[in-house]
Each structure stands twice: as C-alpha cells, then as structure tokens.
C-alpha cells in the first residue's frame, strides 16, 4: 500500500503540481522509494514513518503550500511539544504554551539535546527554508529532540524532557471591537468560514461606515478562500468600483490536468454551502465552469466573462484610514488579502512580511482511503518564471517592525498603529 501511494504522489508532483515544470529535477524519488522498500522488508514501516518520509521528500520542492498528513488522528502519534517558540538571535523564545505548563511566555531555550540553537539552525537549514530568524518555523524540529535547556524570566536555568501532546485544533477568531474613539480593531485568523466573516461584516456595516480608523489584524491568518474577504474589500478602497484585475500584471496559470480539475471542483463544491452572497456564488460557479471547460488542457489562463465580472467590486462608504497588521503567520489567502489591500490609497501595512505562499496556489487535496491526504498547488503566477516570486520574502509591509523578545509582553505593532492614527488625526485637524 505504502509503495503504491508514494508512486502516485511522485506522479502528482511530476505532472499535476503547479511547479512541475519550474522544479523539474529537484527531487530524488528513487532514494525515498528505496527507503520505503527497505523499511517495509524490515517491518519498520507504519503510518507515522511513512508520513515522515513523504514529508521529507516534499521538502525537495521548497514549497510551504505542499503537505502530506495522516487523516486518522487516532492512529497518528502526537507531534506537538505543547508550546510554540520563535528565534531571536541564538535563543528560542516561548511565545505560547497551550499544553506544557512547565514553560511560560518569555522563557527561552538555549539548546536541544545539548546542541546550541546556532548549531541547530545549520543542521536544519533545509527544513527551516528561511534566511531570517523571525520567519523560521521550529515546530517540526522541536519534536525531534528529547530535552531542552531552558532559562526562565528570573534567570534560572533548568533542563526539561520534551513531551508530546495532542495539538489543539485551530480555532477561528473573527471579531470587531472599538479600541478607541472612532477606531475599530478587526481580527481575522483565517478566511475559511465565508458565512461567519460575511455575517460579521454585515452586522457591523454601520460601524464600518462611520468609523474614521480601522485596524485589521491578520498577523495570524491561516488562509482559506479568497472569496471570503471580497465583501470586506468594499470598505477598504476609495472610488465607486475596483477591478481586482487592475492590481497585477501577473497571469495566473492553472494546470488543468484531469486529476486537478476533478479535485478542485470537488473542493469548491464543498465550500458552496457556506456561501450565501449571490455575487460570491457567481464567482464560484464561474471558476467551476472555467475549470471544466479546460479539463485536460494543461497550463492555461482561466478566462471567461463571468470570471472577469466577478473581479469587479462595488465600494462602500468606510474608514478614511486603514492599517493592516501582518506577520509571517499570515499566508495563502492571507497573503492575497494583504497584497490586494496594498493597492488602496488609504491602507498602510505594518509589521513583518507575510509568509509568501502564493507563487503556487489553489490547492487540490488527494485523499487515500481516509488515511492519508496530499495537499498541493495547481496554479502558479507567471512572475515565478522571471524570478519575481514571493517565496521566502512574503508581502513586504510599508512599515517594517522587526520581531524581538519585547513583542512577547507588549503588542508593539498595535501600539505603532495607534501612534500612526494619532499622528494622522493631528494632520487631518490642521486641514
């Protein structure tokens, strides 16, 4: 079974993956196939080791939008150490601890299994895939070690054995609240639940129209579907109408293989029930039709009158000043949202660059017997062909605020946003 699934994965990344041409020859499938056969002969291959092997194989493509996972959580061993950490210089600072009660925010790790953090950066360069400390993701690396050398906020050092916990599922947060007179804070941790986001915007439409300043926090945004933020765009731009097609010269090329079209249509049909807005439903229908019309045609630019019309958005009265808070934990549709909003004259983006996942996007999901699933992109932006991609760089903010350990106890980004608002208020009053 494992060999058959791996062979299909190789076939997908060589024929259906959006980067199959650009990254031809990057991988070494024969090496991994030999490992699978050897482990199978020795009786040492199970679901967990298979997932680990496939994930390691996919690293060859350097695409954070591609992943392989076990879907049966009951059989999948725990792979979460109970906390998250972010590197600052030669230390890993604890930024959250949801399960591990021996650690607190602000404690820091200086070594894993006696190996210094600087040495570990060199060891795991391939897995980290980043050149800046603030962009690194250490979650999968922490699970590979047994002990951590920790220093708490009082300066006391101690060693803990690293334990595995069941990771708490992502809980979406969509909220809007007033944080100062005429200033609203909108928090969107993903764009997955179109209905919930649309309802939040509709219920608070009068607030959005009347406020002078809006801060949108997408520092943690796990993506989802671009359609989920289209209604919000109406309040973020000036003029009577915007055409999203005007904001880029890039062409979106979709690999319309038979497999990709079938999987993408299946995925789009699943989200249909969460959409009630008629215009958004028209956009979804236009995409499904365009995919089916080009089935089997390989890389094409999906064009139709319906798709072109779906990119026209009527603007509404809204805040005169909008600030987006961004960070590396904002990716996929989060990347897209920030990139689109940067075209608005009343939007300022502050914080750190986003994840930068969208060189290759529009994910398809291949599922095997409800045991494993492969997520992979089916579309690419033409800019990757001339070396102008966003991978490893993300969407650059207008005002960059480097991440430091001070962010752990103070929201320096939000403080800066409020300062900007106060400055603009003073300028506005002068006129």
Automatic annotation (TrEMBL):
GO terms for biological process: proteolysis. GO terms for molecular function: peptidase activity. InterPro entries: ClpP/crotonase-like_dom_sf, Tail-specific_protease. Keywords: Hydrolase, Protease. Residues 185-400 form the Tail specific protease domain. This is C-terminal processing protease CtpA/Prc.
């Amino acid at each position: 079974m494992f060999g058959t699934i791996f062979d299909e994965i190789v076939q997908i990344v060589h024929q259906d993956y959006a980067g199959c041409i650009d990254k031809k020859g990057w991988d070494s499938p024969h090496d991994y196939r030999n490992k699978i056969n050897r482990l199978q002969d020795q009786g040492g291959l199970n679901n967990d080791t298979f997932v680990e092997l496939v994930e390691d194989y996919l690293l060859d493509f350097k695409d954070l939008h591609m992943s392989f996972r076990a879907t049966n959580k009951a059989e999948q061993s725990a792979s979460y150490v109970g906390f998250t950490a972010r590197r600052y210089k030669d230390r890993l600072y604890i930024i959250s601890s949801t399960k591990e009660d021996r650690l607190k925010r602000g404690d820091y790790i200086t070594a894993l299994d006696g190996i210094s953090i600087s040495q570990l950066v060199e060891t795991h360069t391939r897995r980290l895939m980043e050149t800046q400390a603030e962009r690194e993701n250490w979650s999968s690396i922490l699970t590979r070690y047994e002990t951590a050398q920790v220093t708490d906020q009082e300066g006391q050092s101690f060693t803990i054995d690293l334990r595995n916990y069941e990771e708490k599922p992502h809980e979406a947060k969509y909220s809007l609240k007033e944080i100062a007179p005429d200033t609203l804070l909108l928090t969107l941790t993903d764009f997955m639940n179109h209905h919930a986001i649309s309802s939040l915007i509709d219920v608070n439409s009068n607030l959005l129209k009347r406020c002078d300043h809006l801060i949108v926090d997408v520092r943690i945004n796990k993506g989802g579907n671009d359609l989920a933020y289209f209604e919000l765009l109406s309040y973020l731009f000036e003029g009577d109408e915007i055409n999203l097609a005007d904001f880029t010269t890039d062409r979106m090329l979709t690999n319309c293989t038979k497999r990709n079209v079938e999987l993408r249509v299946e995925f789009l049909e699943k989200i249909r029930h969460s959409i009630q807005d008629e215009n958004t439903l028209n956009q979804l229908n236009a995409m499904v039709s365009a995919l089916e019309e080009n089935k089997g045609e390989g890389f094409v630019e999906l064009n139709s009158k319906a798709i072109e019309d779906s990119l026209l958005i009527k603007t509404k009265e809204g805040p005169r000043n909008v600030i987006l808070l961004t960070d590396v934990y904002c990716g996929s549709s989060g990347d897209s949202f920030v990139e689109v909003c940067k075209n608005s004259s009343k939007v300022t983006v502050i914080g750190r660059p986003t994840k930068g996942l969208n060189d290759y996007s529009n994910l398809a999901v291949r599922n095997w017997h409800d045991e494993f699933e492969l997520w992979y992109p089916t579309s690419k932006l033409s800019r990757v062909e001339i070396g102008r991609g966003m991978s490893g760089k993300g969407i650059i903010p207008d005002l960059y605020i480097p991440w430091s350990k001070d962010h752990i106890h103070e929201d320096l980004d939000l403080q800066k946003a409020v300062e900007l608002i106060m400055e603009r208020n003073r300028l506005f009053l002068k006129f």
